[in-house]
Amino acid sequence: MMSDQKKSASGRLARMRAVEALKVLLREMSAIKLKEIDLGSPGKKGEIDILAHIDVFGHSHTLACGLQANGEAQRVGTALDTLLDGVTRLPEKATPVIIAPYLSPEAQALCAEKQTGYLDMQGNARIVVDEVFISKRSLPCAAPGSSRASTGSGRRGVEGNTDRSVLDGIAPAGAECPFCSFRVATRVRAY
């Protein structure tokens, strides 16, 4: 069983990683300017973990982000309900975003269905803010703990159409995924 002190340190680290990944993603979009990031109270159930105040083509907007440790669809579904409830209580209009180490394809589809953005540490993102649509997809990767992740089976050195890596310093293009043998390749699109 993990002590409260270790849980707190682990939560702070996850929050710092999520904030950095969000900053890096937003920096890639010339139409979006990050103004400020506010952190919610750690460990409060139903609270929003990160509020990112941004400017989109000169208009203020807020991203209300919830952190999720497990990116499987069932757990993400519960987290989505909690996040969406929290967003309705905010004084300003906000776009909900789930941030996780890994989001399964089913969890990604669930986020899209509930009109919620997502960002994971494997290089996948989908966020719609006003006229800007951010879509980023990495090569398929095994979820942490899956049999493919532990055996390392898969194709080595897979090349992709890489425009630029959104997660420079976190998962640069060409880097090997820590959970399988795929190489990271990303495409960033804004419509």
What does it look like?
Helix 2 (73-88) runs parallel beside helix 3. Helix 3 links the parallel strand 4 (94-100) and strand 5 (117-120). This protein has one domain (4-138): Trna Endonuclease, Chain: A, domain 1 (3-Layer(aba) Sandwich), CATH 3.40.1350. By secondary structure, the protein is of the alpha+beta class. It has 4 helices and 8 strands, in the order H-E-E-E-H-E-H-E-E-E-H-E. 28% of the residues lie in helices and 25% in strands. It is globular, with a radius of gyration of 16 Å. Strands 1-2-3-4-5-6-7-8 form an 8-stranded mixed β-sheet, sandwiched between helices. It has helices at residues 4-27, 73-88, 105-113, 147-151; strands at residues 32-39, 50-56, 59-67, 94-100, 117-120, 125-129, 132-136, 188-190. Residues 146-173 and 177-191 have low confidence and may be disordered.
Short structural summary:
The chain is of the alpha+beta class and 191 residues long. It is 28% helix and 25% strand.
Summarize the topology.
Layout (H helix, E strand, L loop, with lengths): L3 H24 L4 E8 L10 E7 L2 E9 L5 H16 L5 E7 L4 H9 L3 E4 L4 E5 L2 E5 L10 H5 L36 E3 L1
Parallel strand pairs: 3-4, 4-5
Antiparallel strand pairs: 1-2, 2-3, 5-6, 6-7, 7-8
Which short descriptors sum up this protein?
Trna Endonuclease, Chain: A, domain 1, single chain, alpha+beta, globular, 191 residues, disordered C terminus, 8-stranded mixed beta sheet, 4 helices
Can you tell me the CATH class? Answer: Alpha Beta
What level of helicity do the residues show? 25-40%
Strand order, largest beta sheet: 1-2-3-4-5-6-7-8
CATH topology: Trna Endonuclease, Chain: A, domain 1
Question: Strand count, sense and closure of the main sheet?
Answer: 8 strands, mixed
Number of domains: 1
Second CATH tier, the architecture: 3-Layer(aba) Sandwich
Give the distance, in angstroms, between the N- and C-terminal Cα atoms: 46 Å
Radius of gyration: 16 Å
- What's the total helix number? 4
List unreliable stretches of 5+ residues: 146-173, 177-191
Q: Mean pLDDT, nearest integer?
A: 75
Strand tally: 8
Q: What string, H for helix and E for strand, traces the elements in order?
A: HEEEHEHEEEHE
Structural class estimated from helices and strands: alpha+beta
- Beta-strand residue fraction: 25-35%
The shape, in one word, is globular
